[in-house]
């Protein structure tokens, strides 16, 4: 994709604008990147307030609603006199069981209408485990009833609530993992690019050795070595560390390349001649000038972390129940019989695709906008 072009006629003061303002002007011209930014912001908002956005307790099972099918929301209802009234509701489902095969089936029950709404009272919960609340963003008006917008799983747990709860783990593990990789990449890549010589040679041989090794077998081997009896938080931290130790090499190469190009720039030479220490030269002058490139690289690395966690959890080597992540939820889709009976169990896969596409569009836009003076066709 060609780099975003800044039109001087649209921004007469472009020659006086700061780097961040130039980036924002160029970024706004990238429609897919703006769409990705909105989607990513909404996903992280849902992850931050997962308890509030989940209609029900994600671990609450209802035995009589096993594999309950999705229910569509109807916004209008017909009154007895034939008039229309605004009444958001879902149609109830009647459970029946075959006498011979014992297979359960659900049929619509026209006589049962379950009212739904926003900011309704539900079962009490603690936001972030601290703040006691009852209001939920969406749910049934009657707390004793349930509406399954994307169905229920094999234990009768609401899939929408579980996908929302899994957003916190899957999105945060990508952010935290990339953050740890960024620290390693900046330290090792910065040392390699700034000093050069034997330090550069040593770091680059380590990077090349790491890149020469297949990633997936390393993930599987390290994850399989984790004790199965570890508590959920310890396993979450261990998986994050594993993904970070494997994913820092690409960021290190980006940082090294930028340091190699910046260390000969006039402003770096001026800082050295002015008596600035190496630490001040690096952190005060060189790193701020490459923040835009680092942000773009980070936004492009987060989808890889999310896919890695999803893959490991899907194979049973990553996070394990009762931890809820998109990969753990997709593990339910390994059963062909379950998929044939409940195809909505693939809903976490749709969430993964949405998050990865949005992050890739966002990263692509940031990468183009980081060079706002680039000319079209470059």
Question: How would the blueprint of this fold be written?
Answer:
Layout: H1 19-28, H2 31-48, H3 50-53, E1 73-78, E2 84-97, E3 104-127, E4 131-140, H4 159-195, H5 197-212, H6 215-224, H7 232-262, H8 266-273, H9 278-289, H10 291-314, H11 326-330, H12 336-341, H13 347-369
Instruction: Give the SSE order as H and E letters.
Output: HHHEEEEHHHHHHHHHH
- Which structural category do the helix and sheet elements fall into? alpha+beta
Q: What's the CATH topology label of the largest domain?
A: MetI-like fold
Strand order, largest beta sheet: 1-2-3-4
Question: What value does the Rg take, in angstroms?
Answer: 26 Å
Please give the domain count. 2
Coarse morphology: elongated
Distance between the termini: 10 Å
Helix content: 40-55%
Give the number of helices.
13
CATH homology superfamily of the largest domain: MetI-like
Largest sheet: 4 strands, antiparallel
Task: Report the portion of residues in β strands.
Answer: 5-15%
Low-confidence sequence ranges: 1-6, 374-378
CATH architecture of the largest domain, by name, is: Orthogonal Bundle
The pLDDT mean sits at 82
């Amino acid at each position: 994709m060609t780099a975003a072009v800044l039109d001087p006629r649209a921004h007469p003061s472009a020659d006086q604008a700061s780097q961040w303002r130039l980036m924002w002007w160029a970024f706004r011209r990238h429609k897919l990147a703006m769409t990705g930014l909105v989607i990513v912001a909404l996903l992280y908002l849902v992850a931050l307030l997962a308890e509030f956005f989940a209609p029900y307790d994600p671990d609450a099972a209802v035995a009589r609603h096993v594999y309950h099918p999705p229910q569509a929301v109807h916004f209008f209802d017909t009154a007895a006199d034939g008039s229309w009234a605004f009444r958001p509701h879902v149609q109830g489902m009647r459970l029946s069981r075959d006498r011979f095969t014992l297979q359960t089936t659900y049929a619509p029950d026209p006589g049962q209408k379950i009212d739904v709404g926003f900011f309704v009272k539900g079962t009490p919960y603690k936001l972030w485990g601290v703040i006691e609340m009852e209001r939920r963003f969406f749910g049934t008006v009657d707390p004793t009833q349930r509406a399954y917008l994307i169905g229920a799983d094999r234990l009768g747990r609401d899939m929408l609530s579980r996908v929302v709860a899994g957003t916190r783990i899957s999105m945060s593990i990508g952010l935290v993992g990339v953050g740890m990789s960024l620290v390693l990449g900046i330290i090792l890549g910065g040392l390699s690019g700034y000093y050069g010589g034997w330090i550069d040679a040593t770091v680059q041989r380590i990077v090349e050795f790491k890149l020469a090794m297949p990633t997936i077998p390393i993930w599987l081997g390290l994850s399989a070595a984790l004790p199965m009896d570890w508590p959920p938080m310890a396993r979450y931290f261990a998986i994050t560390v594993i993904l970070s130790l494997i994913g820092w090499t690409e960021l290190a190469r980006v940082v090294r390349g930028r340091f190699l190009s910046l260390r000969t720039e006039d402003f770096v030479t001026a800082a050295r001649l002015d008596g600035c220490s190496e630490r001040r030269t690096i952190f005060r002058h060189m790193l701020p000038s490459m923040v835009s490139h680092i942000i773009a690289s980070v936004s492009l690395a987060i989808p890889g972390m999310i896919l890695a966690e999803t893959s490991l959890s899907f194979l049973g080597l990553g996070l394990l129940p009762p931890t809820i992540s998109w990969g753990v939820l997709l593990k339910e889709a390994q059963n062909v019989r379950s998929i044939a009976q409940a195809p909505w169990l693939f809903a976490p896969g749709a969430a993964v695709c949405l998050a990865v596409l949005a992050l890739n569009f966002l990263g692509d836009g940031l990468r183009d906008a980081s060079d706002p003076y680039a000319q079209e066709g470059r």
